[in-house]
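Support request from a user on the community tier.

User writes: "When I paste my structure tokens into the form, the page sometimes reloads and wipes my input. The last time it worked, I copied everything first. Here is what I submitted, just in case something in the input itself triggers the reload:"
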């Protein structure tokens, strides 16, 4: 059954080309209400309103965002996810929400999306490897889902887990990482309005290589914190293990906030290469907290960030 998050009709099937080409500008100007008139299954994605948190920078193209990826479950090459991730079946997807919550249980994607309003969030994504993109996600605040599950007072962290399906994910038949891929946030980071769960990008359901049907996006942290294809969210009292920290603890910490002043042990983090500009494009300066310091610097008051790579 087609849920709100996945539709057979594409935006371009129901929209004049000119509007399709200018969709973000139009949505920005007119707001979501304009699209209320378009009935049926496409309404949810067309209704994704623009956000005060979006950057005005030009997004990378859909082609760039979907053909240069890190998703080790489908291989370690940047083009492997695009080539291999079509084998992931996302129909009937379920997310287990457990641990220190009032209402633990198994949520279908319809449950997850019930009552949420999808928003477009155009965020910078800065990978620890030194490249970056600007991506127009469609999603909703993680806080919204956690509040619906009911966070118990003892909870201090949120742990996330990606699906582990060796039949569908060729990379998990190798030992390049310990599977499943796991990540975590401190509860206040998880509740920050910048932290979203994305179910779409470019007004379409999120492609498999980008983490279908639901992935985390934490724009002020290095990209590896933004875990894909989530099947489990667990509220915990203790700091949960994270995949890259387990793999190489002296290179990847739990916090991993973007910080041009603290170099990775093997390379500088001072600058980044914006994908799409060509191989020889000048690198641009990396911003502290990836430019989101106004919203999140306060979360780390009193912490020596140079010690929390
Ligand atoms: N999530 C899972 N499950 N497996 C991964 O290998 N790679 C991470 C992150 N989430 C990864 C993952 C890394 S290193 C980055 S930079 C981003 O996804 C890339 O997201 P994108 O491919 O959508 O740009």
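"...and here is what came back when it finally went through:"
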């Amino acid at each position: 059954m087609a849920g709100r998050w996945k539709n057979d009709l594409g935006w371009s099937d129901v929209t004049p080309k000119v509007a399709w080409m200018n969709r973000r500008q139009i949505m920005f100007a007119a707001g979501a209400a304009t699209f209320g008139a378009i009935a049926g299954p496409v309404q949810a994605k067309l209704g994704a309103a623009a956000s005060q948190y979006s950057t005005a920078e030009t997004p990378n193209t859909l082609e760039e965002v979907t053909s240069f990826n890190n998703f080790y479950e489908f291989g370690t090459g940047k083009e492997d996810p695009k080539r291999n991730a079509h084998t992931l079946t996302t129909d009937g997807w379920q997310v287990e929400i457990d641990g220190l919550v009032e209402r633990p249980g198994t949520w279908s994607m319809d449950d997850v999306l019930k009552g949420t309003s999808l928003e477009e969030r155009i965020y910078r994504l800065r990978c620890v490897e030194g490249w970056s993109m600007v991506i127009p996600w469609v999603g909703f605040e993680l806080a919204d889902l956690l509040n619906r599950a009911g966070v118990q007072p003892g909870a201090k962290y949120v742990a996330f887990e990606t699906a582990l399906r060796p039949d569908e994910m060729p990379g998990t038949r190798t030992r390049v990482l310990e599977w499943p891929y796991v990540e975590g946030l401190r509860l206040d980071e998880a509740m920050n309005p910048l932290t979203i769960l994305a179910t779409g990008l470019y007004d379409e359901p999120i492609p498999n290589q980008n983490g279908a049907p639901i992935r985390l996006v934490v724009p002020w942290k290095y990209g590896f914190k933004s875990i894909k294809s989530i099947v489990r969210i667990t509220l915990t009292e203790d700091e949960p293990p994270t995949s890259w920290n387990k793999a190489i603890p002296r290179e990847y910490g739990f916090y991993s906030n973007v910080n041009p002043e603290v170099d990775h042990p093997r390379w500088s983090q001072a600058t980044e290469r914006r994908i799409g500009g060509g191989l020889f494009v000048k690198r641009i300066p990396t911003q502290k907290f990836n430019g989101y310091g106004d919203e999140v610097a306060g979360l780390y008051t009193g912490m020596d960030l140079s010690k929390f790579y």
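Agent notes: The reload is a front-end session timeout and is unrelated to the input. DSSP finds eleven helices and twelve strands in the chain. The domain at 11-256 is CATH 3.90.420.10 (Sulfite Oxidase; Chain A, domain 2). Escalated to web team.
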